[in-house]
Each structure stands twice: as C-alpha cells, then as structure tokens.
Amino acid sequence: MKETIGFPRALLFYYYYPAWRVFFESLGRTCKVSGKTTKAVIDSGIKVTVDEACLPVKAFHGHVQSLSGACDRVFVPRLVSVEKKAYICPKLMGLPDMVRHNCTGIRQILDPCIDMSRNRKAFKREVYATGRLFTQNSLRISTARRKAQHTYEAFIRLLEAGLTPIDAMIKLNIYDGQDFENSAIPHNALTWRKGAETRPLVIGLLGHPYIIYDSFLGMNVLDRLKSMGANVVTMDMLSPAIIEREAAKSPKRVFWTMGRRLLGAGYYFLTPGVVDGCLQMSAFACGPDSFIGELLQQESIRSQRKVPFMTIIVDEHTGEAGIQTRLEAFVDIAERSMLR
Ligand code: SF4
Questions:
Q1: Beta partners for 205?
Q2: Which of 112, 138, 171 is the endpoint of a domain?
Q3: Is the CB of 89 within 6 Å of ligand 1?
Q4: 113 with 225, same domain?
Q5: Per-residue pLDDT of the chain in tens (340 residues, 90 and over written 9)
Q6: pLDDT digit string, tens, across residues 73-132
C-alpha cells in the first residue's frame, strides 16, 4: 500500500497544499487532508495547547490530532520565510516543535524547513532533502519539484481571478474532499465592478486565509456577506504589484510577510472608490494582526473615514448571533456610504 501523508486543513494549507500534494504524488505517495474544522476539532486542539496560543494554532493542533492513525506521516512544515528579508509569524516557525510536544499518537512528522529569507537555494536544498526521504533518484525529485512549481503558479492565478483556495484546488483537480467549503466568491468583484452597469456593493475583506476561508473559524463570513447582497474581494485577488505599492506607504517596512500583505491590501481598500467598506477579520491573541489593525484604523481616521472600516476578532467563544448583527450593521453603513 502507498504511504499516506496527512495534511492538517489549517494555517497555510490554504496556500501551499496544491504544490506539496503534486510534489508528493509525483514521488508516488498519497495525500490525505483532514476534515472541515468543527467544534470537536477546536476542542481537541484547545485541550493540548497553551491558553496563549491563537485560535488558528489551536485549530491546527485539532486537525493534527484528527489525522492520528489515518496516515503514515503528518506534514507540519517549519515556515520561516517565503520571500527575501521577510518572515512568517514565529508561531509557524515553531509549529513542528509545538506539535511534537503537544500531540500524541502521531507516527511521524514531516517538517521541512522553508526559509527563503536570504535566497532560494536553501529552499531548493530542503525540497531535495525532503524528496530524498522517498527516492534517491534526483531526476524524479527535480521533475516533481517542477510540477509542483507549475501547480503553485496556476493556483495563484486562480486566486487572483477570484476563486477561493478550495475552489481553485477543485478546479485544478487536486482536491478530492467531499466536504469542500461553499463557493462564496464567483469571481474577482473588482473586475466585475468595472464592467457592471449597476454598481454592486463591494466589501474588501482582510484576514488570514486560514480564518476567512475556514467557514468555522471565519464564522462563514463569505457566505454571510454574500447573502446580504455584498460582493467580496480579498487580498488574494489583488496583484502583488498593488499590494507592494500600497504597503510601501508605511513609513517603516513591515517585515512579516502576511502582515505586509494585509497592510497593503488594507491601504488599497481604504482608498476611496475602490470598495464600499473594509472589514478585517482577526484572531484573538494574534500579535501581528493587532498592530496591522491599529495602522489601518489610523489610516481610516486620516482619510476621514470615507470608507467604513471595522475589525471583528474571533475566538473559540465567538457567537453566531453577535457576528450576524455586526455584519448587518456594517453592510448597512457601507450601503449608505455608497450612496453619498
Ligand atoms: S499570524 Fe496571528 S493568527 Fe496567524 S499564526 Fe501568527 S499569531 Fe496566529
């Protein structure tokens, strides 16, 4: 029987699963993704993590536990950096250590160290080292790496076109779960707006992919906004050029990759005329989000609140009713500002 590699459906799974899946399958392995996030998954993560951990890290642990006994190795990369001179949140750097310490019953952890902060050579070496765990044939590894790279590029193009990560995976035939998230975004609302005769309400949604695309952690925010008649555009639909241009307006370069992307997208959404409201969804106990939210709040005040801005912080106790009321009020305000 083929060896199975388990992927917890949490954290940066939403960006990197397609590439790693193609890589491992090209090396003759099978990949298995954990199920959707549920209360049971969160509770199981909470039991084994420290109180200070953010909700997405707790959820990750729950997903790892749910894969126990269902695969031969669990994929828990040590994500240090995915670009030059910028870093990923420290919690993701220490993730394999946390999982080893906290989770029991996991046969083996596959934890390549992804660090592109200086150059891509170290990353390439790590990919080959990971490949050599399964084959000594360098040509096979090289082919697998190339296929993974192409898949990643195609995936990013689909995100920019407006698909959610799970929809993009389905489109690329690299997701076979029965329980995919609902498709809430038909296409990039900004592109749609340009050609529309009547002006649709567009909300810019900011948040880590593992919050806004996870219907449980993100309290179904995409579907809720859609049911209120709003079209949603996320930072993944913006070109890197827009994000970098906007993020450069910050007097000091933000050296957290995700933080910088959120800030760039936030500055863009707060530019009058781009969207009708900017909504940030953040996780309780997230350090990077707290200062990005503050910077965006200041920008919103500086621009005389021409674009409504609101932050919603989710944690394991967040209730559905509270979210629904706040979203309805926010959409209401966005609609009024659209008519001004
Ligand atoms: S960026 Fe925030 S939400 Fe994401 S892992 Fe780090 S602390 Fe948690």
A1: 234, 279
A2: 171
A3: yes
A4: no
A5: 789 999 999 999 999 999 999 999 999 999 999 999 999 999 999 999 998 899 999 999 999 999 988 899 999 999 999 998 899 999 999 999 999 999 987 879 999 999 998 888 889 999 999 999 999 999 999 999 999 999 999 999 999 999 989 889 999 988 766 555 544 444 556 665 555 556 689 999 999 999 999 999 999 999 999 999 999 999 999 999 999 999 999 988 999 999 999 999 999 999 999 999 999 999 988 988 988 999 999 999 888 778 999 999 998 877 777 899 999 999 999 998 876 6
A6: 999 999 999 998 899 999 999 999 999 999 987 879 999 999 998 888 889 999 999 999
Number of domains in the chain: 2
Which residues are paired to 83 by β-bridges? 86
Give the range of the structural domain holding residue 33, as residue numbers without chain letter: 4-171
The verdict on 90 and 199 lying in the same domain is no
CA distance 226 to 298: 28
Angle between helices 287-302 and 257-269 (to 10 degrees): 20
* Residue nearest atom 6 in ligand 1 by C-alpha distance: 89
**Whether residue 67 sits in one domain with residue 145:** yes
Specify the CATH number for the domain of residue 285: 3.40.50.11900
289 lines ligand 1 (CB under 6 A): yes
Report d(CA 221, CA 324) in Å as an integer.
9
Residue 297 lies in a domain: yes
Q: Where are the alpha helices (DSSP H) in 162-286?
A: 165-171, 189-195, 209-212, 221-227, 240-247, 257-269
In a domain, 46, yes or no: yes
Ligand 1 and 259: CB distance under 6 A: no
Expressed in angstroms and rounded, the spacing between residue 50 Cα and the centre of ligand 1 is 14
d(CA 26, CA 145): 9
How far does residue 124's CA lie from ligand 1's centre (Å)? 26
DSSP-assigned letter for residue 114:
E
- The answer to whether residue 184 is domain-embedded is no
Q: Going by CA atoms, what residue is nearest to atom 3 of ligand 1?
A: 286
Strands 202-206 and 73-75 come out as: unpaired
The model carries a pTM of 0.92
